[in-house]
Amino acid sequence: MEKEKKYRPNVAAIVLSSSYPLECKIFIAKRSDMDNVWQFPQGGIDEGEETKNALLRELKEEIGTDEVEIIAEYPEWLSYDFPERVAQKMYPYDGQIQKYFLVRLKDNSKINIQTKHPEFSAYQFVEVRQVFEMIHHFKKNIYVKVIKYFEEKGYI
User: Fold this and answer.
1) Which pLDDT score, from 0 to 100, does residue 112 have?
2) Vertex 26: Cα angle to 23 and 32 (nearest 5)
3) Is this prediction's pTM over 0.85?
4) Which residues, 6+ apart, have CB-to-CB distance to 95 below 8 Å?
């Protein structure tokens, strides 16, 4: 019998620039620990922590600001399995189960990826289609699913 998989609870954010809704540009960042891997900000939910609190904490830790307004939330939790090389690093977890949020940077917010424990070496704001061109890793199908949902709902 296959062992039951263990998923780490996680929040993820699709961050829109402060110029939204006039223009729809999405924040994407390059991981500092992997070669040419771009992704959305995300991170674990601490024991007993509310998802929205975890979202704001992770944004502050990863992009240096929690000055955002939450526009929408993906209605379900989405899970994915880690590839083998990542699974070893993330033991005892087999993957992550994520709650996605669509957020807009407030006009006065300042992104700073030079945080206490930097996860990203670069970032940019791109058009929706560019996101799909830049993502080549195991999370791509989840990114597609979430973005399509927010598009269908008329947010992006």
Assistant:
1) 97
2) 150
3) yes
4) 5, 7, 8, 79, 80, 81, 82, 87
